[in-house]
Design goal:
- The protein is built from four helices and four strands, in the order H-E-E-E-H-H-E-H.
- The chain is α+β, with helices and mostly antiparallel strands.
Length: about 120
């Protein structure tokens, strides 16, 4: 039986997560991309807590964005999640691309987070 692209992505994500974990000193910035939206959150895996989060569905971003499934909106989410993490005193993170290719919206979010002050 042939695997779907979603199943392949989950397999890649599990392979990434075997070696990648967020700690209180350096939490994990994980990204999820759907067709219409993009979500990012900073997670402390030891405690199991989400420390900061942002998405294209946030009220403050929804008003500013023209569309939600493009690189500009992904960059806005990256900037917002970095800003929220920096407000909580988080400067260094581990980037978890969630099994997606580091390309397009995922790369735009990561670059915007770096420019906003997060260190990967």
């Amino acid at each position: 039986m042939k695997k779907t692209s979603q199943q392949n992505r989950k397999t890649r994500h599990q392979r990434i997560r075997k070696t990648l974990s967020g700690s209180p000193a350096r939490p994990r910035l994980c990204v999820y991309r759907s067709l219409n939206h993009i979500y990012a959150q900073v997670v402390d895996d030891l405690q199991g807590n989400t420390l900061a989060a942002a998405s294209t569905q946030d009220k403050e971003l929804k008003e500013q964005l023209k569309g939600t499934g493009n690189k500009e909106s992904a960059a806005a989410v990256g900037k917002l999640v970095a800003q929220r993490a920096l407000d909580k005193g988080i400067t260094q993170v581990v980037f978890d691309r969630g099994g997606f290719l580091y390309h397009g919206r995922i790369a735009a979010l990561a670059e915007a987070a770096r420019e906003a002050g997060l260190k990967f």
